[in-house]
Amino acid sequence: MDAPYGKLEQLEPGIARVLAHNPSAFTYYGTQTYLAGESEVAVIDPGPDLPEHLNALEQAIGGRKLVAIMCTHTHRDHSPAAGPLSERTGAPIIGCGPLALESVGPRADAAFDGDYAPDRVLTDGDIVEVDGNPIMAVATPGHTSNHLCYSYRGALFSGDHVMGWSTTVVVPPDGDMAAYMASLDKLRQRDDRIYYPAHGRAVEKPGQYVRHLMGHRMQREKQILKLIGDHARNIPDIVANAYPGLDLRLIAAAGGSVYAHLLDLQRRGLVEQQEDRWTATA
Ligand SMILES: [Zn+2]
To answer: How many Å lie between the centroid of ligand 1 and the Cα of residue 64?
Structure first.
């Protein structure tokens, strides 16, 4: 497939997309930046700081007022263009909070954009208006602690919380499996018409898809419990058994997700850790 990098694609009235040229094992064809609005516009997930992507976004915005530059979270494929786009256009950065910190130290890893500096942070239910229509923040921690989805005219910009091509990576310390499952359950109780994820195709039956994702994670949890119920295992051993034939580039991410499941199970008193090996509690 020839991915349409740098082209403005109108998806429905008031929603358009520009694909950034940052394909990888984690981003699929790249980050999809969305434009919401008609006479005014908001940019959602401006993406990586690539001059040709910023040029394409400026062209897409055209003469319209850019009301807000909004990020779903601060991974490097989502937020680094926010600052440069704000400088070019004068528009404010409004949306997810900056890097979350804990008393024990940063929860960041190399994938985090430490330069992200919002003008205004939205919490669950907060609204930005575009053409008089609300864009509402829907707090969805799990993939990262600061993740927000955005609801607009029956559509949900789902960022990396729900993607259209692969299951979401949930890697501790910032990624949290219990929070991720709770955020899926939160979406399950909404009635959004369609999801526009940052990576992969639009999700046209969101309720069904979210239930499928929740089932998939519960299967994975059962599988991990079964593997360590036989005998104590370390994470690479669990990954080798639970993800046969996995793309080598994704092994570290799979290990992170297994670790996220194990921490969640440990909190629930179902598993225990001895050195690097995990076992089910009797
Ligand atoms: Zn991400």
So the answer is: 29
